[in-house]
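Tokens in:
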């Protein structure tokens, strides 16, 4: 069986884990330069509500079409319409804020936690984006319990992935491996890329 095939199966397997348990690994704590720590702390500090702003009517309509399409795709995992809307709006906002493709972030969440807010991995990573508790000490206020708050978790996860992407000079494959604590191994990046395809959106069809 090919690596890509095994990765796709692994991504699917993550959807059927016992409640509250995530299969994902975790980021490895590494020393941060003071300037990097300050920049990351600043990036997660603003707690403004995730209200998207659009420069044009066309951009807003694109977002609304995206929201409707993604809401339909997410219904099986989140039955409540308002819960889906709030989650997707926050994912869009935090992805854009960090300069990330929202389909990538949704694919990562699918693999990391299968969209479970209170998922906990075997190494203690928490929430939707499986953020390791040490990040709350390094760049947050020291309270890892807040990583179960939706916007806080997505904010940390997106900022951390952006940090790893910058560190790897734009190499998404290596950045994803670093996010998972498996840098250089193909299974995790391939699983995220496979999951990302489900959340791709071209603005034309509400599939």
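Residues out:
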């Amino acid at each position: 069986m090919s690596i890509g095939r095994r990765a796709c199966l692994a991504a699917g397997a993550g959807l059927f884990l016992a409640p509250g348990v995530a299969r994902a690994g975790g980021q490895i704590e590494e020393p941060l330069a003071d300037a990097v720590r300050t920049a990351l702390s600043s990036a997660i500090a603003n707690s403004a509500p995730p209200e998207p702003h659009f420069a044009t009517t066309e951009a807003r309509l694109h977002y609304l079409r995206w929201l409707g399409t993604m809401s339909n795709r997410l219904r099986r995992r989140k039955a409540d319409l308002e819960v889906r809307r709030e989650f997707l709006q926050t994912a869009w906002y935090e992805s854009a804020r960090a300069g990330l493709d929202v389909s990538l972030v949704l694919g990562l969440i699918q693999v990391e936690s299968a969209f479970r807010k209170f998922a906990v991995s075997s190494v203690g990573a928490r929430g939707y984006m499986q953020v390791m508790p040490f990040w709350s000490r390094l760049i947050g206020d020291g309270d890892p319990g807040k990583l179960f708050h939706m916007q806080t978790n997505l904010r940390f996860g997106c900022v951390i992935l952006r940090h790893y992407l910058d560190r790897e000079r734009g190499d998404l494959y290596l950045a994803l491996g670093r996010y998972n604590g498996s840098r250089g191994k193909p299974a995790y990046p391939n699983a995220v890329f496979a999951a990302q395809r489900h959340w791709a959106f071209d603005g034309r069809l509400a599939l």
